[in-house]
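SUBJECT: protein chain
CONTENTS: sequence, structure tokens:
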Amino acid sequence: AFYADYDDTHQLLSLVIPENAKNLVDNGDMSSWKRGNKVPKEWNIIGISDQSGSSDIQRAGVPENYYVSVLNSLSANRMLTQTIPLDNAKSGDKYVISAWGLSGATLPREEHFWGVRILAKNSDNEEVEIHSMPFDASLWNVEQTRLTAFSLPFDTDEITIQLVSSQQLGDVAFDNICL
């Protein structure tokens, strides 16, 4: 459970998350890496070359603080995804998503997305985007932490987190993904 206070324009004024809150994202801090893989084993890759030989994605940082770095392409969408099972999640249930990001040369245009998307399975068993949390693509080489709250629009038994870099230049990084 958490407490969030918004103003009339829906800007977040304050957020309180208990210290004992459990992160539903497995290895959201990107600390555990399987030997030889370019991504943590808990994450799946889309639009990125194979895990063993790719220079499109790499582990960066230091052993105490690894993060995932993605080399981009203007002609490609690159994603890391993780599906999270939910027990008895109902329409109206509220969640908070947060993430750390760093970019080298992003394009601040609507059609060039860099950030986190949340998808959920509806009653027809279709994955539907229910939330989007962009990083500020106009800030180059500046560490960013984003945090937003969202409500489930329908009952579901799982959600998928997508770390997305869509048609960007340079590289971007993701870390500290929490739900």
About this structure: The radius of gyration is 16 Å. The mean pLDDT is 79. Residues 3 and 16 are 5 Å apart (CA to CA).
